[in-house]
């Protein structure tokens, strides 16, 4: 695919993912959400899925379907334990998907939830991100640890000029569906 700087010329190096010191962050043990938990979702990953809608996004992609999730002070804070309890009450789900907003700006909280649903509920875990796999890997830290807990990542910003509604789980042609080796973050296959 080439260097991410060529593909996404408007984006700089991803230095904001691991820490956002100028951005309000929820306290430890909490996550900031943009809306209620969803269940029985069939459009944000394989199988019947629960969805966590995170709040806050620095990307502001033109044509974004969720611009109300951009404001880091928007939405509401919820205890991670409460999220896990509610997820455990959703029968028949096979996985969890993190959408946003940008899940990778709250990587510690997202990883705690991901670990819970995998260990306690046996679900697989997917996430969307406006950042690329390469940017997240370069950033390292908690963002990379969250990525290593995933089974799949849909990466890259939404680019309106590349909008393609025929793609599975993606909105624009630049975005990739990456199947990952859990625990290492290694890309196993790409769609």
Kindly report the average pLDDT value: 87
Please provide the ordered H/E string of secondary-structure elements. Answer: HEEEEHEHEHHEEE
What gap, in angstroms, lies between the N and C termini?
12 Å
| Cross-sheet strand order for the largest sheet | 2-3-5-6-7-8-9
Q: What is the count of helical runs?
A: 5
Structural class of the secondary structure composition?
A: alpha/beta
Going by CATH, the architecture would be Alpha-Beta Barrel
Radius of gyration: 15 Å
Return residue spans where pLDDT drops below 50 for at least 5 consecutive residues: 1-22
Overall morphology: globular
Helix content: 10-25%
Largest sheet descriptor: 7 strands, mixed
Key features of this structure:
disordered N terminus; TIM Barrel; alpha/beta; about 25% helix; about 190 residues
Written overview of the protein:
With 191 residues, the chain is an alpha/beta fold. It has one domain (37-190): TIM Barrel (Alpha-Beta Barrel). Helix content is 23%, strand content 21%. It has 5 helices and 9 strands; from the N terminus they run H-E-E-E-E-H-E-H-E-H-H-E-E-E. It has helices spanning 4-7, 80-88, 107-121, 133-139, 141-148, and strands spanning 30-33, 38-41, 49-53, 76-79, 95-99, 124-128, 152-155, 176-180, 187-190. It is globular, with a radius of gyration of 15 Å.
Brief digest:
By secondary structure, the protein is α/β, with parallel strands linked by helices. The protein is built from 5 helices and 9 strands.
